[in-house]
Amino acid sequence: MCRERKVYTTSADPYCKFIKQHFNEKGIDYQEVDIGRNEAGFCELISFYGKGPLPVIVEDGRIVPVHQVIKNVQAMF
User: How many domains in the chain?
Assistant: First the structure.
């Protein structure tokens, strides 16, 4: 089971909105880092994980593909 989950997002991205809504509906704990409003969070994302499509989901320090997270969540419920 995941001990720490961070979700790097931007407020305007529809995929970010979807994953946050999905987690909230399922009661899944996560720390959101809105890189559009949090410069330190943006720098953290770039320095540790590089550039890529959002949202970026990090569980226990490892990037997890969005489709895998959704599949795992669906299996729990």
Answer: 1
Tokens of 17: 């909105």
Q: What tens-digit pLDDT sequence spans the chain (77 residues)?
A: 678 999 999 999 999 998 999 899 989 999 999 999 999 999 999 998 887 788 999 999 898 887 777 776 666 55
Measure the CA–CA gap between 15 and 17, rounded to whole angstroms.
5
CATH code of the domain containing 66: 3.40.30.10
- Cβ neighbours of 56 (radius 10 Å): 22
Please give the residue range of the domain that contains residue 41. 5-76
d(CA 54, CA 67): 12
How far is Cα 7 from Cα 32, in angstroms, rounded to an integer?
5
The DSSP element (H or E) to which 40 belongs, if any, is: helix 39-49
Whether the pTM exceeds 0.90: the reply is no
